[in-house]
Amino acid sequence: MAGDGEFDFIRQRLQPLTEGDPAALDLADDAALLTPGAGEDLVLACDTLVAGVHFLETDTPQVVASRALRTNLSDLAAMGAVPRAYLSAIAWPRDLDADWRAAFTAALHREQAGFGLTLIGGDTTSTPGPLTISLTLVGTVPAGTALRRNGARIGDDVWISGVVGDAGLGLKAAGGAGGDLAACRAAYEAPEPRLALGEALRGFASAAIDVSDGLLADAGHVATASRCAIRIDVDAVPHSPTAHAWLRDGGQVETLLTSGDDYELLFTASSDDSAALTALGGRLGLSLTRIGAVRDGAGVVAETADGRRLEPQTAGFTHF
Amino acid sequence: MAGDGEFDFIRQRLQPLTEGDPAALDLADDAALLTPGAGEDLVLACDTLVAGVHFLETDTPQVVASRALRTNLSDLAAMGAVPRAYLSAIAWPRDLDADWRAAFTAALHREQAGFGLTLIGGDTTSTPGPLTISLTLVGTVPAGTALRRNGARIGDDVWISGVVGDAGLGLKAAGGAGGDLAACRAAYEAPEPRLALGEALRGFASAAIDVSDGLLADAGHVATASRCAIRIDVDAVPHSPTAHAWLRDGGQVETLLTSGDDYELLFTASSDDSAALTALGGRLGLSLTRIGAVRDGAGVVAETADGRRLEPQTAGFTHF
Questions:
Q1: Residue segments in chain B with a per-residue pLDDT below the cut of 50
Q2: Does ipTM top 0.95?
Q3: Residue B212 burial (CB count, 10 A)
Q4: Which among B148, B169, B150 is positioned nearest to B246, based on CA atoms?
Q5: What number does CATH give the domain A157-314?
Q6: Sequence spans of domains, chain B
Q7: For residue B98, how many other CB atoms are within 10 A of its CB?
Q8: For position B76, what pLDDT does the model report?
Q9: Which residues in chain A touch residue B48, judged by CB atoms under 8 angstroms apart?
Q10: Which residues 37-66 on chain B approach chain A with CB closer than 8 angstroms?
Q11: CA distance B35 to chain A (A)
């Protein structure tokens, strides 16, 4: 944006999102100023969402704000971090009307409040292209306790939180697919970053990642980083009732395991911790399911109980 | 990008930019992990550059990389911060060829080395729109010493580093304007973030800002934040020989004072510090020029010695 519009927008629409956080310096300076706590490491995650690529052009301001903040928060959850604040760099299409922008910032305000977050800085500009939202999230962990992808040990169990595949079905629903999948729309539109779980897994999980690229692809990232193989027991992977019904109607389990956007946490842990993890899930009100094991070797093997091996290259996931 | 290309690009082109910085976690995790030093505040600046808006579609990869990093570094300079690391969120147009991308990351690598910076994280994605580069710079200052815009006091002098207006003339040259302005191209293509000056001004300057929107507009930002008026002595503002020649050929001084992108530091300081500041400029090999004063009131008044008052609204700057 050029001219007064930009500064009016910052003052009227963005300043309220700082909630007076001193780190924001009222968005009146060149940068944010953060005083770290003693004994804390900072976790910095930065994700970009582009209209038509990472969300639908038809998505509402609420859905776009929700996905922008929550997918970034999921990266903090995967590291076991507690969110502290964020910066937003938004390139607005020139023809986007002021009402849409105002609805977006109002939605961002509601969303951040649910996670105890404040806006502390960023940039506001215009683009001849699609709406492009780049958020930088700042979280903290006690020094040395961040979860990583590279700690999986041979013999560890592989766990997943929640259910797998609903976000992919929800995206089909948001794109106009049939009525039965409507129950999955929330999984796409407002994914739940597993922050409490990530925090609780510190010092527990040997490796963790959030499922953004798809369960098998993200298991592959852990296998690569940890220099091991991961075996997934396809029949053990938990799905929602809607997804089970979709499978009975001829849907492919490969789709559920490769369709990304679930933002559940996949993690590895010693089998000695099984009972403790099940109890943790109970305390959090979140199902935690053992879906495989870490083995010697490389890559991911996903097999059903009757011995059928999923062939990732035919299942649409090309990330490794 | 989708598929293997994205991960190959990260491994081959971006990982070398980490220079093994442990905070980057080899770009193999969900986020960067930074251990702040004791007694340090973190300064976080985030700027977005869009092709066709913030740089020319015809600019080389070197110019785009240079401007992306240097304009962000200038925000750290304005706060008196020492750069520590950065995250890059880049949305690549789908039709941009791999050679351009490789030349860009190679240029970014050269640029960051000149400032002792390492890449510690970010995001790589694709866009149907123009190349969009969002960098988040992390710098540090001793706790409580960051320069701000809001500290100018009535009676302070107003100073500027270097010369004003060359970047605007350089942009005309980069866009194809006549030969005499070619000497100014470097001011547009590789602006010099005044990091050493910013650091030296800590505890010295009462307020500081980098000139990105134009001298008068940025003086206005300081006036607003500091709740005072700023008087600029137009004849005292330093220009390069090329700019002086351009003025003699009929160029308007308003253009030089409103054409942004100079990335010099405008700052205010007690008149007791004049001699010390002149000496500081000598030590840094950088001219520091007194160009005005802080007064009671509001806004910016820019006047020539013969009493002509520049009228900002006719001079193309609409930011306040």
A1: 1-3, 314-320
A2: no
A3: 21
A4: B169
A5: 3.90.650.10
A6: 4-142, 157-314
A7: 12
A8: 97
A9: 89-91, 123, 125, 132, 134
A10: 38, 40-48, 50, 52-54
A11: 5
